[in-house]
């Protein structure tokens, strides 16, 4: 998945906003809260994608090939994973985790904010 494909996918999720920040990373938010980051790992030539996961998925993914605890975020106890090897076979899996991250983050918004944005109804 390229950063352009990543941005196209995230843009289609409900109530999202985009900003480029943190050393030219593609940052996607829902209700002002980050749910996905494209980039952020300049040590690799391939694109890297960072997203929030459930406790269970964090335990499963942290040791899987192509995944790692997200730099900066996981070291602070947050359940974020970075996928740094995306192949044609794993694009659907990445899209699933991006969608789940969007859902998890949106559920953390206040009910009022969720209603304003038309989320989780």
Task: Write a structural description.
By secondary structure, the protein is an alpha+beta fold. Helices cover 33% and strands 24% of the residues. It has a single domain, classed as Aspartate Aminotransferase, domain 1. The chain has four helices and six strands. The protein has a six-stranded antiparallel β-sheet. The relative contact order is 0.19. The mean pLDDT is 92.
Question: What is the topological layout?
Answer:
Elements: H1 3-11, E1 16-21, E2 25-30, E3 33-38, E4 49-52, H2 55-61, E5 67-69, E6 80-83, H3 91-107, H4 111-117
Antiparallel strand pairs: 1-2, 2-3, 3-4, 4-6, 5-6
Number of continuous helical runs: 4
Question: What's the main sheet like?
Answer: 6 strands, antiparallel
Count of all domains: 1
Number of strands: 6
Main structural class: alpha+beta
Shape: globular
CATH architecture: Alpha-Beta Complex
CATH hierarchy class name: Alpha Beta
Average predicted local confidence, pLDDT: 92
């Amino acid at each position: 998945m390229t950063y352009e494909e990543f941005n196209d996918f995230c843009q289609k999720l409900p109530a999202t906003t985009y900003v480029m920040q943190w050393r030219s990373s593609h940052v996607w938010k829902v209700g002002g809260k980050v749910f996905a980051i494209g980039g952020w790992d300049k040590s690799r030539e391939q694109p890297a994608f960072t997203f929030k996961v459930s406790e269970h998925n964090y335990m499963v993914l942290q040791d899987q090939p192509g995944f790692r605890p997200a730099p900066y975020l996981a070291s602070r106890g947050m359940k974020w994973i970075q996928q740094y090897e995306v192949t044609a076979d794993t694009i659907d899996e990445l899209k699933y985790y991006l969608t789940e991250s969007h859902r998890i983050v949106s559920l953390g918004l206040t009910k009022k904010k969720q209603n304003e944005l038309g989320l989780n109804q």
